[in-house]
Amino acid sequence: MSVSVVLQARVPEDLARAVTADAEILGLGGVSEAIREGLVLLHRKARQVALGQSYDSFYDGSPAPVSDVTAALYPDED
């Protein structure tokens, strides 16, 4: 079991109401569960951006080369 921490943020009142309604629509246990879900999505997006940045760094900003298999599957694509 992992240790949990408390994070706090001030949000506009209308956003707080929207998150409460969204949690209900999605069948979540409340605002805390909705915020946890949002943080998971934020973390996933950050990992994807970091992966893209690592490709850019590795290939020095040039597009990654296309494999022979991919080129064979999509011969009309440039």
Descriptive report:
The chain has 78 residues and is mostly helical. It has one domain. It contains three helices and no strands. The longest helix has 28 residues, at 31-58. The radius of gyration is 20 Å and the shape is elongated. The mean pLDDT is 93.
Entry summary:
By secondary structure, this protein is mainly alpha-helical. The chain has helices at residues 13-25, 31-58, 68-73. Helices cover 60% and strands 0% of the residues.
Index terms:
elongated; 3 helices; mainly alpha; 78 residues
Q: How many domain units?
A: 1
State the end-to-end CA separation.
Answer: 49 Å
Tell me what portion of residues adopts beta-strand conformation: under 5%
Oligomer: single chain
Q: How many strands, what sense, and barrel or not for the largest sheet?
A: none
How would the blueprint of this fold be written?
Elements (H helix, E strand, L loop, with lengths): L12 H13 L5 H28 L9 H6 L5
Helix pairs in contact: 1-2
